[in-house]
Specification:
Layout (H helix, E strand, L loop, with lengths): L2 H31 L12 H28 L16 E7 L8 E6 L6 E4 L2 E7 L3 H6 L7 E4 L2 E8 L1
Helix pairs in contact: 1-2
Length: 160
């Protein structure tokens, strides 16, 4: 898999996420500051509610911007069979003990944007944060290691 192209795809998805958050924050701000939302009496809370929404959307936009900038600083690197899993590692992961013969899941250990799924070359790649329990368990693991998480076991089938 071409990690340079995957990196570009992830940045594109993060930019899209930021653009959506920016638009929502702008709309919430305009609603909160609109003259029709000035309280007419002490029971009129529409303006206050709109300001809380604007604050939340601004926070969401800042988080999206931070994720984008952080990921842009992460340079794509290819990892070999003897390297430990760290940020930027693409991992082929198979759940053990399911009795099913399924293809390995692909996860990308990322410093930000955990949970984001990117379609890449017909496959879905899940961004996994080190803050997630599985991300913590995988960080520092090696090729062919088994990782346990609760009652589930996973095999690291590939890294790149």
């Amino acid at each position: 898999m071409d990690k340079e192209l995957l990196h570009v795809q992830i940045i594109s998805a993060l930019k899209s996420r930021y653009d959506i958050a920016y638009s929502a924050a702008k709309q919430a701000y305009e609603t909160a500051t609109h003259e029709e939302n000035v309280a007419e009496n002490k029971y009129d809370t529409l303006g206050l509610e709109a300001s809380y929404l604007a604050e939340g959307q601004a926070r969401r936009m800042a988080e999206a911007e931070n994720a984008l900038k952080t990921f842009e600083r992460l340079k794509p690197k290819n990892f070999g069979e003897d390297d430990a899993i760290q940020f930027g590692t693409l991992i082929g992961l198979r759940e053990l003990g399911t009795g099913r013969d399924e293809a390995a899941s692909e996860v990308f250990l990322s410093p930000v944007a955990g949970g984001l799924i990117v379609d890449f070359n017909g496959r879905q790649v899940l961004l996994l944060s080190k803050l997630a329990p599985l991300g913590k368990a995988l960080f520092g693991a090696y090729l062919e290691d088994e990782v346990e998480l609760g009652d589930k076991r996973y095999l690291v089938e590939s890294i790149s």
